[in-house]
Amino acid sequence: MTTSYDPKPEHKFTFGLWTVGNKGSDPFGAEVRDPKSPVDLLYLLAEVGAYGVNFHDNDLIPIDSTPEEIGTIKENFKKALKDTGLVVPMATTNLFYDPIFRDGAFTSNDAYVRNYALQKTMKSMDLGVEMGAEVFVFWGGREGTETDASKDPVESIKRMRDAINFLCEYALDQQYALKFALEAKPNEPRGDLYNATTGHMLGFISTLDHPEMVGVNPEVAHEHMAGLNFSHGVAQAIDAGKLFHIDLNDQVFGRYDQDLRFGAANLKSAFFLVKLLEDHHYSGSRHFDAHAYRTEDQEGVKDFARGCMRTYLILKEKADRFNHDAEIQGLLGELNKMDNDLLQFKGPYSQTKAQALKAYPFDRKSRSMKGLRYELLDQLTNEVLLGVR
User: Fold this and answer.
1) Mean pLDDT over residues 152-173, rounded?
2) How far, in Å, CA of 44 to CA of 57, rounded?
3) Which of 180, 190, 306, 349 could pair with 144 as two cysteines, CB 3.0-4.6 Å apart?
């Protein structure tokens, strides 16, 4: 492999225990890979050059572990972190797998379940902070319905708000320097999920008691499932100052949640995403929330992990080439060039400026006939990606 595409700590490439630890089962087939312990997975990630590891609470500590078992697991995990040099930038909690969450966690109709979900999350926050996490992600995998006869959606949104407000207060009370990141998905495993897109989440955050503590964790596959342009959702999060974390993978539009290797299906979309993150100096983790094909053994899992990181770095180089291509930048400069006599309208509103703008003689017909050269610009983008410029 070309050494310029080898991952380095400054790239902040991370994987979840559930990603490289995926055993290859699906709704139609059993597991094809042997289970690996969290410690084994840390050494695997160190071998492929990752910067860090993320986990759900029960990825690390099985839900029915005894206090003695919990102590041993944590001690072994901390030792492996020290041995490998890996860090834990993010933690989360599993509020979707256990049968108690079959009707949701924070939005369950059952107050017993809602309170258990809060208890489980607080303990998960404690664990994450103990391991060094600075971001805590919420993915509401069961927060939804199959039939709207079962829940009032307004009440469900209120229940979710109450839960996040409570947990923000817990973090403040414990003096945790945690940021929360909300992860959207349109459906699966529920028929429909609440706050289905990144835009929904950004609107929801503005209603919270501590919106400054809460941002988003957009995922490529989740927005592609809904047929959306993922980069546009990420751009909205960047503009709002709310991109606290990001999940990188890939997804064929309109399919079930595939969690493909980053860049495996939509290279052009992946290119514009990488360009967006790099152009706007995103400083957080680049987390690969994906897993290897079911066809793979453990060597294939390593190929998968290396491939995610290598593709990102190749596309980063392509983005730099795009940004320094004279013809491409010339076209973009011409497209964004402002007529000299319009400079008087730049800047904030004034009454004088508004009156002058109302009186300006725009020539609508002649400007409507001007070609924009987008065909050429898109072709030049293709040629950058294809390696011929």
Assistant:
1) 98
2) 20
3) 190
